[in-house]
Amino acid sequence: NPFLTLINLLRFYLSISKTQKFIMKKLLVLVAVFTTVVMSNANAQGGNGNFDPAAMKARYVERTKPQLIEKTKLTSEQADKVLDINWDARMKMRGLRDLSEDERKKKMDDAQADADKQFKAIPLTDDQIKAVNDFFEEQRKQMQQQRQNGGNGGN
User: Fold this and answer.
1) Is 48 exposed, middle or buried (0-12, 13-18, 19+ CB in 10 A)?
2) Cα-flanking dihedrals φ and ψ of residue 154, to 5°?
3) Cα–Cα distance between 58 and 81 in angstroms, integer?
């Protein structure tokens, strides 16, 4: 019975000296701080179970679409299609990490050519495709710079 356990704990607490009570309070505070740090660290690493690919894609589109439209002057519909194509390409490229540098470069070049072909089918003009590729290249550079600086850009 949890209630009896609490009563026994209270009896024990009342029977100990002031020094022992002080030590118990310190220990309780340390346990509380430790638990808080562990739980916040788990949440920061995705401990909230938010590894759902659809949710990740939705966050990606939500963050990227306004910047893409602003910098490339695409319509909202064009931007949605471009982001779908880019997301799919990114997911394909995730598996390339284990390849040699030459193989990875060839696969990435193939993926870029495929994406450009899909951009043409939206349809986008050559100038729009260049603007889109420049936008994503700038995004890649910013991500690399953030990684080198050990931060995540305040996100």
Assistant:
1) exposed
2) 85, 10
3) 13
Token code pair at residue 123: 């349809």
Q: What is the pLDDT of residues 103-138, one digit of tens each?
A: 888 988 898 899 999 999 999 999 999 999 999 999
Residues in Cβ contact with 131 at an 8 Å cutoff, skipping those fewer than 6 apart: 71, 72, 73
For 93, residues 6+ apart whose C-beta sits below 8 A from its C-beta are 107, 108, 111
CA separation for the pair 60, 139 (Å, rounded) = 12
Q: What is the CA radius of gyration of the chain?
A: 26
User: What's at 39, amino acid-wise?
Assistant: M
Contacts of 92 (CB under 8 A, 6+ apart): 111
Q: Over the stretch 6-51, which tens digit does the pLDDT of each residue have?
A: 788 778 878 888 898 888 888 888 988 888 888 877 666 554 455 7
Distances (CA, A) of 139 to 5, 11, 38, 43, 67: 57, 62, 32, 26, 10
Both structure tokens of 103: 């193989």
Residue 44 structure tokens: 């920061």
pLDDT higher than 70, residue 150: yes
